[in-house]
Structures are given as structure tokens and as C-alpha cells.
Amino acid sequence: MNTKYSDRDTTSARRTLGGCLAATVLASALLAVLSAAGVTSAPASAHGSRHPVIKEERRYIRTHSVSPDTPESYGGPFELTDHNGRAVTDKTFHGKWTLYFFGYTGCREACPLGLENITRSLELIGPESEKIQPLFIDVGMEAPDRKGLAQFVSNFHPNILGLSGTRAQTFEIVRLYKIRREYMGTNYSKKEFGPRIDHTTYIFLVDPSGKTRGYYHHALAPDQMAAFIRKHM
Amino acid sequence: MKRRDFLKYGGAGIAASTAAVAPLGSAAEACTAAQPCPGPLGTIALRIDDKRIMMVDGKFFNFLAFKRTDVGSQDFTVPGPVLRIREGDSITISVRNDRPEPHGFNVTGIPAATIDCIPPGETRCVTFTAPIAGTYLYYDGSRNLREPVASPALLYRVLGLHGALIVHPVISHTDAGSPTPFSKSTHSPKLVALFDALGTCERFQGGDLGKWKGCEIDQEYSFQEKIWLVNQVDPKFNNLITASGITQSSLLLNMLGNFLPRYFTMNGRSGFDLASGDDVCPANYIGEPTLIRCLNAGLCYHSTHIHGNHLMELARADLATGAVVVHENIIERDVWQTWPMQRRDMLLPFEVPPDIPFRNPVTKAAIPLSEAVVQEQFPLRYVMHCHTEMSQTAAGGNYPQGLVTHWEIEGPLGGRALRTNSASL
């Protein structure tokens, strides 16, 4: 995996369920390999193996098998500019349910899919969707292209608002929502142009008081997205 | 290793190095006694002032910066401009100080190139004879009033007053006519063997184009010569820089102990901003080597590492005297250490990387490129990063927005000579 040009707040103890499972599976596989190699030949006590390698692996599993962060730990105060040039903050959207989705306008894979799924889920929700403000936040490191952002979001639900900011502003909201960004060295996509950014694609649901109530994957089926949002509203 | 611990190790390097090469403090009375420039402003004219610079996360901090005023229209930069001179020449450098506090000028390994003090608003000069060819570091080694006399003067250098000084050789060619970056008097048999072999064998391909060609003396860098100058930034020290002078903080009583870097830079940039740039990223065809002059102006120890090729270590600095030491033996490095104030000249040979299957490992027969498993399109990109892992982050954990860049191999693998015939190697 190319991890050259991304940023991630490693000071926060962010764990994903996938990561936990991967760590567990990896450790289990390693244990199996060690067993096959005869590493576990040391006698095991009733309280577990005394072999230092095995103990170390078990300690690793204990350390890394933790629950994902709670939804409330995501989000916070930020300042950005919308695609119409209007300055916005987190408080601008208080009083409405808000969907936060992060991406970049050159994307032709996860971002259009996520925005299309958001569009369809809002249509499924019907008139009540007027209480929901969907946001698409540009995570690119380059100077913001407001015109390009406006054009990109215009392909989807008319209520979707594109947000962008200075580099410092973008760093801040990316840190608040623990969005991982990786600039890839080469873009092989036939559909995309410009740099490719691999990034976190969760969609965050924030309640009218500004508290994050849940998050879900961008590829979740629109009816399930609608059900998830309705459940919280 | 904890961040503060590795700083301490770096500090040991500084204590060993700077005690010998940095001048003792430049108190106000010494400044008054310093003489103004006797005549013209000299071969190289520099100015010192403050500059506000954006870090990779968009935050701005104050720096102290050099600017060259005798050529073109340059801006204040961190690091300062690359200065190139020729060995044996008599060089006069003038430095004008536009800041409210006194400053100085030093060059590692050239004690004669020292200006102890430049009073605020004034210009001072120094004349010296350029020493043997190699990589040197110029910097401000004068002491802030709050820095204890018993410890090395660090503040102004780390806040941005540093840059690379390159001394070009007068006679650099081997007997066989291969150009090198060093004076003939310092050539060892193994150095000669390496530079003579470039472009002449299967390992070092490229033919006539495989010989190393140095940068022109009026340029900062070239296709086959880059400068990687690293430094670190702790904003709480940058915040001491004000328009009226340096805030006299108790932090300066133990700068080494209080220094906790938030940004790790190369040529003043990091992360996304370091991902491109002809000054940093070597990009050449197979068999066309690039010299990388590595310098560390900061306080932290770095372990520079690249993927794809090993580098040949050609020269380093003697940390006790600062002098250039051209190696008797040429060691291949996967990782090379860069202590504070250390300089190393590393040759990136642009060999065919071992992860590219271009030759049958048993029969040694060449595999046509069309049959080889080529994982990426050209250019092939290989990462450069620092094995002192925390330096790959920025602003307290943004990974990898720190000391990370890359180098590129232009295709095809057969080198420039085969670029029009990519069907075979």
C-alpha cells in the first residue's frame, strides 16, 4: 500500500472494526504458523503459554482488540467556505440533521457513488429530507477550486452543499472527523484526472445540536441509508 | 525510542560537533568592536531578516531567513540560497542584518569564514580562501543573550539561518577522464574505480551518459546533483521572533531540553509539499547517477533511507573539525545517518532495481520487457523516508506529512539509449 502522502492523526486512538478483525486474524495466523514451525513446543501452563513469542502475540491481541470510537468522539468546531462563497462554521448547520461526506472533485469512484447513494436515500426519505443538510467536504491539499466543487456537487441532490477551505481549515476538519487521506504516487484510473486520493469514505450523521450520532459506509444501499437516518431522526 | 530521547542523542552529536566549530558568544560589546566592510560588498552578498512561512498543515510561523542580493531577484528563504564557489578562490561574503538583534555568520569546516557579530542594520564582511571541494553548511552560530555560554549556540541556526555552501573542485577528473565532485588530491583508488566504472558495465549502464555530471556553479541544483538539507521546527521557539527582536524566554536557558519538533523539513518543506520539486526529487534514466548532498542543520538525528537502490557514501564531515573527509573505501548504504551538523555526499547510481524481474535468476538470460511482470508504469517511483520514524509525521501525528519524498526512474529499464526500443533490455 502506498502511504506516501496522507495524513492521519495517529495521536488519537482510532481503531476501526476492520482493523481489529485484521489484527486478530493476522495474530491468529501467526500463531498457527508458529505452531506449525514447532515454536509452541514449550509446555503451556493452565494460565496460557509461557513462550515469550506467544505471550507477546496475546498481549498484542489484547492491546489492539478494542471497540471502535464512539460516534460522539467525531466532529467539533470548524470554519470553511461553501461552494457559493459563503463562510460557514459547524454552527451554521445547527438546527438541522447534517450528513458529512469527505472526498475530492477529481474522484470518479467512491465520491460519486457516495453522493449518488445520499441522493437516493434522501429521495426515499421524502419530504422529511428537507430537515437534512448533506455536505460534501473537499479534502484536497491544493488550493480550493470553488467553481469545480460547485459543478461537481450539482450532479447530485440539489441540497448538497460543497465545502472547502484553506489548508489549515481542511486539516482541522479532517482531524476532527479522523479522515485519513493518502495521495497516491500514480493514478492508473482511466476515469479520473489529476491526483488520486485514497481517503476515508464514511458518511457521518450529525444531529441538530451538533453531536455526531452515527456513521456508515458510502456504499451502503440507499434504502439502508434511509433507514439508518430515519432511525436517528 | 521516545521523541525527547532521540533529541537527546541528537544533542550529543551537536555537543561534540558545535563545540569545536561554532564560535563562542557574540555579546553586544564584541558587536560594537566588529569592523564594517572595507570596500565593495564582495563576491556573495547576503541579507538577514524575518519571514513568515506556511507549514504543511497550513499554519504560519515566523522564521529568520537569508536572502542573496548580488544575483537576480531572490526572496528570503529557509534554508538560505545554495552558494557555490570554486576551491582556491578568494571569496568575500558580506552579510547585512535587517533584524533588531545582532547576528553572525559561520561555515562548518572553514574557521576563517566567520563573522562573530553583525549589529542590527549594519553590514559585515569576511574574506577567506575556498577550501577543498565538498559540501559545507553556512549558518548563524552567534549566541542569543539568553542562551547559556556553557552550551552550544543553537537558536538562530534552527530558526532558519542556514544553507548549503558547495565548493567545486578545480581538477576533478580521474586519469581516465571521469568527472567527480572532489579534488583530484583527495581521490582514493576506490573512488576513482567507482567513477571510472560508471557507464561502462552491466551494473552501471548508460554508456557516455552514465558518467556523473556536476551542477553548474551558477545553479542551485541539476539533474544529477540535488541537495537534501533537513531541519526541524518547534513553533514555540519560532513564536519568540517578533518585529522588535527575540523574546527573551526561559526556554532558551535549555534549548536542547525544551526543543520538541512539530515539523521535520527537507529544503524547508515536508509531506505533501515535499512530494515534488526538481530541487529534491531525483528523476533520471537507468545508468545516469545523481549525487545527493545531505546536510542536517537541525537538532535531531535522522536516518535517511530510500527504496529501490543502495547509495554509495562518497564523503562526510569530520564532526570535530567540520572538514570534508572523502572516503578511502566506498560503502553502499541502505540507510545513512545524518547527525546534527553532519553532511554526507551520497551517489544514487540509478541501477536496475532488484524488484524488477528483468533477468532469469538461473540462466541469467534477459527477459524481454514485454514478458516481464512490470508492476507499475514508468516513471517508477521509490520512496525516500527517514527511519527515525517520528520524523515522518507533522503537527503531532499527521502521517506521513513529514520527512518523506521520492525518486523516479524514467523508462524503459534499458536506460535512455533504449527508450525508443522498449521491446528488449
Number of helices of chain B: 6
Q: What is the chains' assembly state?
A: heterodimer
Give the second-level CATH assignment, the architecture of the largest domain in chain A. 3-Layer(aba) Sandwich
Mean pLDDT of chain B: 87
For the record, the count of structural domains of chain A works out to 2
Main sheet strand line-up of chain B: 13-10-15-20-17-18
Head-to-tail CA distance between termini of chain A: 39 Å
The CATH topology of the largest domain in chain A is given as Glutaredoxin
What's the CATH H-level homologous superfamily of the largest domain in chain A? Glutaredoxin
Number of helices of chain A: 6
Percent strand of chain B = 25-35%
| Strand residue percentage of chain A | 15-25%
Cα gyration radius of chain A (Å): 21 Å
Name the descriptors.
heterodimer; A: 233 residues; alpha+beta; 6 helices; B: 425 residues; mainly beta; six-stranded mixed beta sheet; five-stranded mixed beta sheet; 22 strands
Write structural notes for this entry.
The complex is a heterodimer of chains A (233) and B (425). Chain A is α+β, with helices and mostly antiparallel strands and 233 residues long. Chain A is built from six helices and twelve strands. Chain A folds into two domains: 17-64, no CATH class; 71-232, 3-Layer(aba) Sandwich (Glutaredoxin). In chain A, the strands form three sheets. A seven-stranded mixed sheet of chain A has the order 5-4-8-7-6-11-12. In chain A, helix 3 crosses helix 6. Chain A is globular and about 65 Å long. The two termini of chain A are 39 Å apart. Mean pLDDT of chain A is 80; it is low at 1-47. By secondary structure, chain B is mainly beta. Chain B has helices at 3-21, 28-33, 155-158, 189-197, 235-238, 255-258; strands at residues 44-54, 60-68, 83-86, 90-97, 103-107, 115-118, 123-129, 134-139, 162-168, 225-233, 241-242, 245-246, 263-266, 283-285, 290-296, 302-306, 311-317, 324-333, 335-338, 343-348, 380-386, 404-410. The N and C termini of chain B lie far apart (45 Å). Mean pLDDT of chain B is 87; it is low at 6-27 and 420-425.
